[in-house]
Amino acid sequence: MSELRVTLIDVGWGDSILIESLDENGKWHYGLVDSNDTTYLRSSFIFLKKHFKKRKIDLSAQGPIFEFVLLSHGHDDHGQGLKGIIKEFGTEKFWYPKSTSWSSQTNLLRYANRSTRVGFHQSLDKTKIVPALGEVDISILWPEYNRIDRHNENNNSVVLALELGGVSFVLTGDAEEEVWSRIASQLPANTRFFKVPHHGSVNGTFDSQGNETWSARLTQSPALGISSHPMRFSHPDKQVIDLFRNKAWPLYRTDENYHLTFMTDGTDVKVKYSHV
Whole-model pTM above 0.70? Predict the structure, then answer.
């Protein structure tokens, strides 16, 4: 039976998301969104190493483990660990948005250009059609073609919809109000898991007048996941948490529940986490 799993890895701050797709032949397919690892803090690397070891994957093999690795946007708490991840595990495709952030993203592109651990790389926008991950279809909801926000890198975030059967999971990067004002109406009606944008900050869920953005458009009660960012920024914000509690939507946070895995067989959604 086909299956989609999305795991928000508890990295303490920032994002790292493992995507797994089991096809009808029993083969697993892997994708990764973001890694904030540093030289001394390697949370996503350690998680992935242990996870693939449990799956009995030979990491010494020459072929890449990942079918794609995606940088959601050019902030260090999302991308500074990707070079090390790609170097260790390899990827067939490296994806990223167009950006004016020329620090970590430029270094990643230089590495992708010369590394044998990257098959090919390209920027993503809504006009791009990307291959399925196993039997999971992938749609790009944002950014728009040839659009770069030069003032707010968060609004260059790639927003993905992953669909298996009658269920969609949405990954949001750090997209803020401007993005949701343009695409909230395009969110899949069958969204059953939604990654709360920007670590649960106010500007990821409300507009400048305090109105709901994306959450007002979802017709079902999706499971929500927050890659928390308690250090420095104190995300998630109480106003965001209160909104979801009032809606009685199931909410899971990496700072409270640690690693979060959202699973679907295309009909039902289950959640597994490593701490209560």
Answer: yes
